[in-house]
Amino acid sequence: MLPLLQLVPAKLLNSSCSLEKTLQCSCSFHGIPTPSVQWWMGGVPVGVDGMDGSLQVTSTMLGPWANSTISLTEEPEMGMRLLCEGKNQNGTHALSILLMSRKSSLAAQAFVKGLIQGAIYAGIVIALLFLCLLPLIVKHIRKKQAKKAAAIRAKKSSKVRASQELEMSLKPEEPGKPVVATFSESRILEKQDKRAS
C-alpha cells in the first residue's frame, strides 16, 4: 500500500525581477499537487509558453515545483500591474508587481535634483543680497539711534533749563546785597539810576 501524499496549498517561495535589455520577472511556487502558474498583465491573463509581441512567458514544472518567467520586450505603461499567480486545488498564492517606466523615474530624479539645486542657489542669492544690504541696514539703524539720542538730549536740556528758570524765579532777592555786574552792565545801571532821580 502506498502512503498518502500530504496535500500542500500553492505557496510562492521565490520571486525576482531584473532589467537588462528586457524586463524579466520570475516566480517559483511549491505545492502538492504541483501548482499551475498564470501571469496577468493589467488584469488580462497572459498565455503560458506563448508569445504576445511584447510578452514572452516560459514555465517549467518539476515535482512539486513550478517556475515561470515573463519577459517584457517593450517598456510598460506607467503604473501597469503584473501579477504572478500560483494555484492548486488546495489554495492560491499571488505576487503583484507595480511596473514603472524608466523614463518616469528619470524625470522624477531630474525634478528632485533641479529642486535641490534651485534651493541651494536661492540660499546663495539671499545670502549675497543680505551681505550687500548689510551696510545700508547698519547705516539706517545708526541714524535712527542718533535721532533718538538727540531727541532725548533736547528733552533733557529743556527740562534742565526749565528747572533752572524755576529756581531763579523762586529765589528771593536779598536787599542790600551787592550785585556783581560787568562794566557795560554797570554803566547801564548808572544811567538808569540817574534817570530815576
Explain what the structure shows.
There is one protein chain. With 197 residues, the chain is an alpha+beta fold. It folds into two domains: 8-100, Immunoglobulins (Immunoglobulin-like, Sandwich); 102-154. It has helices spanning 102-170, 183-196; strands spanning 8-19, 23-32, 36-41, 44-46, 51-52, 55-62, 65-72, 81-88, 91-98. The mean pLDDT is 78. Its main location: membrane. This is SIGLEC family-like protein 1. It is a single-pass membrane protein. Residues 160-179 are annotated as: Disordered.
Structure summary:
By secondary structure, the chain is an alpha+beta fold.
Secondary structure layout:
Blueprint: E1 8-19, E2 23-32, E3 36-41, E4 44-46, E5 51-52, E6 55-62, E7 65-72, E8 81-88, E9 91-98, H1 102-170, H2 183-196
Antiparallel strand pairs: 1-2, 2-7, 3-4, 3-8, 5-6, 6-7, 8-9
Transmembrane segments: 118-138
InterPro entries: Ig-like_dom_sf (IPR036179), Ig-like_fold (IPR013783), SIGLEC (IPR051036)
Protein name: SIGLEC family-like protein 1
